[in-house]
Amino acid sequence: MRATVVITLALLTAMAGALPRTREGTKRRTLVDEIIAKRATKASTPATADTPNKQVVIENFFTTQVDHFNPQDSEEWTLRYFSASDHYLPGGPILIFLGGHTPIVPSMIDETSLIYEMAREMNGVVYAFETRFFGESRITSDLSTANLRLLNTDQILADLAEFVAYLRRDVIQNEFAHVMVSGMGYGGALAVWFRVRYPHLADAAWSSSGTQNAILDFQEFTESWGDTLIEFGSQTCYNDIFVAFHVMQNLIDSGLADMVSERFNICSDINADDRIQVMYFFQVMMQAIEMHTLANQNVTDFEEVCNDITGGTESALDAFANWFNTKFAVDVGCVVVDLDEAVEVFSQADWDSALNQLGIRQRMYQACTEFGWFFTTDSDQQPFGSRVQLEIYTETCTRIFGDWQSFESIYYGVRRANNRYGANSPATSQVHLTNGAADPWRRASITNDLNPFALADIIPGALGGADLPAISENDSEELQEIKRRIKALMSRYLFPVDPRS
């Protein structure tokens, strides 16, 4: 069987693969897994021998129920978490960072993190909580569709509720210990939703780039990505990408798909009569440049890409193809634009799959059943043409998880999630919401104040998670101010009257 690697971005709502090219004389190599891992684990990175967290962060395990909502099922499983308690004193708070859609790593709560800085200043203990089905928190024997029924937000929040009760009762041994929950992306959304559903178990929540609003057709993402490209790349770069995608569309429509296939080193020529394959090709192209510019959460990557695309004298299409072949898919034998190949990868249910260890199949399942967040080109205010439509995503969900998945089931899943948790207007307080002004994901987040006790900050010139590291002299003045405000608000919410004063 030929090796396949799937390219993913964010919630993995789009896929691309690399396989040995069938045409004679081409290298038989595949796209490195690191390209996927770079984005999939971006919230934090593992500790290295040079970092101090080996001494302060300890791995632990917690036992809870497999199904919290079935009283006839008493089966249990073991969830992984990390702890850092070197600054804890009796009466100090419990601070929990939620891994969300990524396996937890020590750097989420080590000395380089803002949450650890909070724990040091408030004499608290800090934990990293791993979501069921991610990392080492393997709740079932495999990731079959039947088992994934246990992967949903209600079950995850119930795990967290049991975890908080366990920490208060058995670890801290203080039933009234103050609790803050926090996280980035889906983890940030979980923090807000925990305050909504279990306000008696958490006194405060801090959501960094939290994706609280489930969106089926997430056309706003490509709009915002384009805005960031113009701001940190150039208008010329935006225009050239716009031209390249529209020229590709015209070539395919005119029966010249082979010219496009050749330029982008496609394994098998694009079949212009295959609507799904054409859609998937444009999805691959769009996701390639979006993932590349967002992978490091550094806006300077937009400028670097634009320098590559606009720095020569060739046509817009040739410039984009040259960037794709030499910077994104470098050393790849050829690129797959066959949805069946991607579906085969996403259908693997074995825990030992490298992609499943990163949470690829799991995140796709939640996208198909709860959140959507499918990047489309349905808006005219973006540079990627008009061929990436919802149909490619609903078709992907159906092929991966079964015929029970359909446009209707996904639509109702998204609507149900927003009805349960409040979307952009949850009824909650004592939360703080932060987002990067340049982050396309902010369009699925809460960016305005909800009430005097649920305020929002926008970080100028930043992508997602800029506020997670400890305060540094390298931070902009605006970012330092926002980090100090986060600490002040969380302290005030946890201790309206300081019991140690």
The total number of structural domains is 2
Kindly provide the name of the CATH class of the largest domain.
Answer: Alpha Beta
Q: What spatial form do the alpha-carbon principal axes imply?
A: globular
Q: How is the largest sheet built, in terms of strand order?
A: 3-4-6-5-7-8-12-13
Give the N-terminus to C-terminus distance in angstroms: 67 Å
Number of strands: 13
Strand/helix succession:
EEHHEEEHEHEHEEHHHHHHEHHHEHHEEH
User: What structural class do helix, strand and pairing data support?
Assistant: alpha/beta
CATH architecture of the largest domain: 3-Layer(aba) Sandwich
Helicity level: 40-55%
The fraction of residues in strands falls at 5-15%
Given as residue ranges, the uncertain stretches (5+ residues, pLDDT < 50) are 1-54
Alpha plus pi helix count: 17
Overall mean confidence score, pLDDT: 88
CATH topology of the largest domain: Rossmann fold
Radius of gyration: 23 Å
Q: Sheet with the most strands?
A: 8 strands, mixed
The CATH H-level homologous superfamily of the largest domain: Alpha/Beta hydrolase fold, catalytic domain
